[in-house]
Protein 1
Amino acid sequence: MNFICATCGTQFEDSGDAPPEHCPICEDPRQYVGSGGQRWTTMDKLRKNHHNEFRRHEDRLIGVGSAPDFAIAQRALLVLSPAGNVLWDCITLLDEFTETTINGLGGIKAIAISHPHYYSALADWSSAFDAPVYLHAGDRQSVMRSSNSIVHWEGDELELHDGMRLVNTGGHFEGSAVLHVPFLAGGRGALLTGDTIQVIPDRNYVSFMYSYPNLIPLPARSVERIADSTGRLEYDRIYGAWWDRVIPTGAKDVVARSAQRYVKAISS
């Protein structure tokens, strides 16, 4: 049976009738094991008390998220492209309704994931849609369920199709990445950031952290690398990891001044 960590949503290799002894993703300093200890579930159990919702962010971008919230509670983003749809980040729950709805939208040509906290049930999603999964090689060790569909890309950038490209920023994880989609935001471009670049309540700024739940900051050089690697891209909008975490316009300037503010604060 492929058990799923109820805290981070990661699906593991088949371990028979007993769950794994521990979750390396949650035991990492960037995540946590809850006060009640390690908890496990399965895809069948999730299907009984959760469902997925689809919400359109704009003409060619649709969010897919589970209700009620599960684990970290991120939502995935389905980028609609004539050359093939791309699923950005992943959620754990996959059911018949989700498969039918996505296939009705043209299916999935490629899955790309920002960092290990959102690897979730990538093997099931890849198998259901016959799609490769692009993960940066810097986080290879964080894959808890292997799949022949995984492509461990290397370097600073990876071109997909229709002008979309993955950019390795580092920071939150060594392999942390964002997806640049030039045709979103009315052709002004958008960054899909997961929590590599974190959209915060004050939409005039974003933030960057080694660990969000444990409040561990990044060093100045890591923040500067994130700013530099995204500064050469043309974009006006950012979509973060949750439904309402969106900077609708002026996002490139927001990232630049946020990096400056962050570096100044931790260097004081």
Note: The domain at 4-267 is CATH 3.60.15.10 (Metallo-beta-lactamase; Chain A).
Protein 2
Amino acid sequence: MSKQFRLGGDLAINRLGFGAMRLPSKNGIGGAARDPEAGRAVLRRAVELGVNHIDTADFYFSSDGAVRANTLIREALHPYPPGLVIATKVGPILRPGSFSQGAAADMRGLVEANLESLRVDRLDLVYLRVGGMGVPHGESVADRFEALAALRAEGLIRHLALSNIGIDHLAQARAIAPVAAVQNEFHATQRGDADLLAACEELEIAFVPFSPVGGGGQFEDERLAKVAARHDATVAQVALAWLLAFSPVTLAIPGTGSLSHLEDNMAAGRIILTEEDLADLA
């Protein structure tokens, strides 16, 4: 199993990365603020442990707006180490207490906000994040993706991606510009997008599941528990190892605001699942 993936064909990244959503708030987007110094410490340690792919968004912030993921990334890691790939998302317009979906005309402002908060001249990877909690089947992404493709042509974005989509959206976007990654919910106990993952595998597009260990909840799955006991590992570690073994295009981006959880997550990269393990988890 390869431990690296060439994102967009030219960015070599480790398949076990880091998701920044839980840095500003323990409860995810809009929750009570965490200690920002703890977040900066987690980011520095993640890079020390080999993370060179960080997934973030300008709308990842605490309920009061005081602690923001992009700010923590900039404060902890800028100037960025060579080879670090930072992926971000645009689409939703979040302010403390409000949520709306941006239109095509909003894409430039959203991209520029990420450029400013991360203090970069070009964003490595930008996802168009669509919908709310569910995939917006039947909703066109063309206008918004065309707006992002124009910003890519200007040199503000290196690679484009899609998040929370159906297979129809992928085809629609690929008719406009290359798609380097797809980010949908997918994990060991939620495999509903297997067809979309298979399409990404065929096209050599990265598939980057959000909620790779169940969104902070506890997996209650006898299969995972059985394999975890066999490896003297946690269920979450086996879930991450399974994602990396399931397809050569899957990338895992577990997120945490805890140094101890970070160490546990990164240790999952050392677990090699056997054929017996994979059969038990099938």
Note: The chain has one domain: 4-220+249-257.
Protein 3
Amino acid sequence: MILFAKILNIRWLVDAFCFYGGGKGGGGGEQTSYTTTLAPQLVPYAKDIAQRAQGIASEEYVPYGAERLAGMTDAQRQALEGYKGIETSPLYDEAAGLMRRGAGQTTAEDISRAMSPYQQAVTDIAKRKATSESQQALERIRSDAAKADAFGGSRQALIESQELSNLGQRLSDIQTRGDQAAFDNAQAQLQAERQAAMQGAQGLSSLAGLQSAAEMQRLQAMERAGTIEQADAQRLLNMRYQDFLRQRDYPKEQLGFYSSMVRGIAPMMPSQQYAYAPPPSPFQQLAGAGLTALGAYKAFQGV
């Protein structure tokens, strides 16, 4: 019974192996390998290729010592500096000053400054004329009084007093009209100055805008010219770098060409095929021993 139990355990192992490893009863199949032999006439070339490849692989890294990127040109730097200062035109400050002047309030000092001195001269002339006319009137009054033997009388004094009073009023009226005319002229002049200041501010602002636009166009043209110059310099640097890469990789390219030519000019030797059966695994050996023991047991029992 012990031997039978051991045989059953062996058969369980066989079943388990067949379950995980594949189908039952199947042994390991034959395996085929292929070998290709290099033609004898190509061996020297293969050795030469290997030696050259070894030499190239042992070379030290050679860095590129020249510049890779083109820097900013003088035109680009000048354009950049110009962009920074384009908003600082003095015309803007001058226009702002005129704007404040045009929007300001009129003061007594402004009126006094704007009043023309010639207006007072005109007023003085009118006053002298009035005084002269009054003097002539007084002389006629005295002459008439003398003819009427009333010279120095109360009536003459009353008439002369009235004439002098009229002269004073006339002179006052003349001065008042002169002052009013001077004031009106000053007001008109100041108003004209304010309007001129506002118009001047608008004109300067427009001029400053045109000047800024023209300056912007000039700077943009300068920047474009600098960019074209930089791009041309960059193309030259790229060309030099590509030349460096071609010179550096030239031995590798030649070796690749050499190797491809060697492989192409002569075929390889015919391949050889080998078929063999792999040795049984430990599980297969154990299963075989178990089956042999089982057969012996059955023969012993007469089954």
Note: Residues 7 and 293 are 7 Å apart (CA to CA).
Protein 4
Amino acid sequence: MSRSVTFLSAAALALLPTAVFAHTGVGETSGFAHGFMHPIGGLDHVLAMVAVGLFASHLGGRALWLVPLAFVGMMAVGGALGMAGIDVPFVGFGISLSIVVLGAIVALRLDLPTIVAMAVVGFFAIFHGHAHGAEMPETSSGLAYGLGFILATAVLHGVGIGLGLLIGTAGQRQGHRIAQVAGSAMAITGLAILGGAL
């Protein structure tokens, strides 16, 4: 298992330069397509959003839709704050920390109550939303841009849920091991990103 963690971590670290492209001031920021590509273009956002889906899949039941919904809802709140120019401290730190925490949750397969899981992902979603909202153009395309990044987030959550359900078919022991490797790789990558954010 340690070989798998090492390989996945090395692969994730090799992709680290792409993480900066999801943050304020980089690239074009207008229209639906740009809003959609914004979360997908940053490794930090992708890892956190897929981790939310994996977490929701592990919890199952109502958490399968409530946990991603909490993330999307609070991300919209964070986006509105960013768009309004209201400062949220430590945005980069919060985004990086979200990968570490959510990766650890996936690796440890924590069975949190749904309301607690919603609160955890919702808290981190504010940082992700603010990063997007701070870039949202003050033009008529701002709404399209916002819809794009919300849809991309939902798609990434769906990918995480799908992966989680697929992991579940591998059997309890094998599934647990796969989740440990995936979550550990996410957390290690989050620590690397966090190191750059400090």
Note: The chain has eight helices and no strands.
